[in-house]
Every structure is written in structure tokens, then in C-alpha cells.
Amino acid sequence: MRYIKQLLIILAFCLLGELLAALIPLPVPAAIYGLVLLLTALCTGLLKPENIEDTASFLIQIMPLLFVAPAANILRYWDIIAPNAVEILLICVVSTFVVFAVSGLVTKLLLKRKGGDTND
Amino acid sequence: MTEFLSSISLFPLVLTVGAFQCGLWCQKKFRSPVFNPILVAVILVICTLLLTGFSIERYQGSMASVSWLLTPATVCLALPLYRQLQILGKSLPAILTGVAAGTVSALLSIAALCRLFCLDTSISISLLPKSITTAMGIVLSEQSGGIPALTTIAIMITGILGSLTGTTLCRLLKLDHPIAQGVALGTASHVVGTTKATEMGALQGAVSSLSLAVAGILTAILFPLICPIL
Predict the structure, then answer these.
(1) A114 near B120, Cβ under 8 Å?
(2) Distance from the A1 Cα atom to the nearest Cα atom in chain B, whole angstroms
(3) Model ipTM?
(4) Which residue from B47, B53, B59, B174 has the highest number of Cβ atoms inside 10 Å of its Cβ?
(5) Nearest-CA neighbor of B173 among B67, B226, B116, B102?
(6) What pLDDT is recorded for position A101?
(7) What are the domain boundaries of chain B?
(8) Residues of A in contact with B48 (CB under 8 A)
(9) pTM, to two decimals
């Protein structure tokens, strides 16, 4: 029955996340609040990884499956998207390279500045 | 045929799981990020729906009964994040700053290009969260008036691009440090990039998955600030 108990703990964090999302007037999704709350609980030792591990890994593993239906909805929006397909692709390519370069180079610079103790 | 399929209430679910399994199989067989399981599954599902005449609305209606799992699954991402935080303790400031710089550059570059191309606001909002993980991207896009379907597709394209060009980009930019490589792959191309990072090395993989989670959270926080300028 450990799956059920773990599911209950996870759902409790989801509920807390929904509560925060309703109370705080920012368009931050409930799932993000839930994630941050769960992370805080783990970091403070309030919750041990073993308390949620089995159900959590199951949910994380099936997660990609949950993206198929939302993506298939592209069929419904095809008329809006098709005329801008080239621009959309171009934006994807350019911004991916920009982010790759900026994040990688900034990290490298900071690691170097810290000195030679980062050879791990 | 359509009527027969409509009478089977599990048809959409079986189709989705089956298509995804096909996607996994293709990925294993061809060993190329182009065969992204989600992308393969989406194409198979769309083709099946078009061929059988099964309506997309019915399909979505039926799949809505499992989509609630997305919130608890996203919340659970805290667990791998917690583990990576523990491994990467002392390099954390550099990693977090790199991810933050990358996230800001993602939002600004996408917003600027959308303005340049005079794209419709709903399309711009859909593209804005394209460098983060799908779970978070979909929710952000939906809440702010974007098209979650377009967001998902843009996220997939971004992931595949980063994964395909990652090794070359690292060489061109002279990113020789494994931590810098992990940050670049995770911030730019989320989970798909992380798979590539894991191939490059365990340290790259851990850094990459930490980066994608942090990038997701940061994007969620910065999103409302960027939306008005679109």
C-alpha cells in the first residue's frame, strides 16, 4: 500500500500548490508552487526521499505520455500556425543557439574565475 | 469504422500509449534525437485520427481523464532536483548564474524575434516557454492565453535541435568544462538535451537536469514580466 500513501503525500503538495496559486496574484502555475514546496520539504528534512520515491518515479516515467494529447491538438490550430511556420522555426533555431551560448559561456567564465579548484 | 471506434471508450488511451511505445521503439532502433518519442507518437496519433475519421474533440475529451496526472508528475520533479542539488553543492553559484543568464536571454530573444516578425500575440506567448520542460511550458502557455499545442511542438523542436547540435556547439564555443556543457544543454533544450548531456558524461547529465528544472522555475517567475511587451 506504499503507493497509495506516497500518492497521498504528493497530492497534498499539489493541493498546497493550488492553494498558493489561488492566493498569490501571480500567473505562476500551481505545479511550480507544489514543486518548490516539495523541494523545500526535502531540503529541510521534513520529508525523506523514501516517503515519495516509488510513486514519484512512476509519475515521472509516464510523464512524456501525457504530452502526446496536448501536442496532437496542433490539428485544431493548424490554420493559425501554418502561415507562420517559417518564422516559428526560425525563432526556435535562433533562440536555441542564443540560450546555449549565453548559459554555457557565462557558466564557463564563472567557473574559471573561481580558479583551478573546479577540476571535478 | 468511426462508429465502431467511438463505441470503444478506451480507444484514445490505447492509441496514445501504443503510439508512444512505437516512438520509444523508433528511438531505440535509429538512435537519433530526430526520432523523439513524443514527436513520433503525435504524428502517429494525428494520422490515425485523420484516417479513421475519429474526431479530435472526442479524442481530447477522452484523454482529459488522464491529463490531471501532469500536475502531480511535475511536482515530483522536485525529487531528482533535490538529489542533484546535493551532488553539485559547490559549483551551484556558477550553475545558477549561467542558467539565469540563459533563461533571460531565451525570453528576450524570443520576444524580440516575435516583435520583429509581427507574430500574433497568442503565437508569441506559445513560443516564449519553448526552452523549458514540456510540463511547465504547457501550463504557462495555457494560463497566459497561448496555444499549448504549439508550445509542445516548439519545445520538441528546440529539444531535438539542441541535442543534434550540442556536441558541435560545445566545440565551436570552446565549452570544454563538463559543468558548462551541462548548463548549456539543460537550459537550452531541457529533457531532450539532458539525454544528450548524459551521453557526454554523468556530471554533464546531472548538471543538465538541474539546469532544466531551475530554468523552468525561473521562466515561470519571469513570464508575467515579458508577456506585456509581446
Answers:
(1) no
(2) 18
(3) 0.86
(4) B59
(5) B102
(6) 96
(7) 2-67, 76-229
(8) none
(9) 0.83
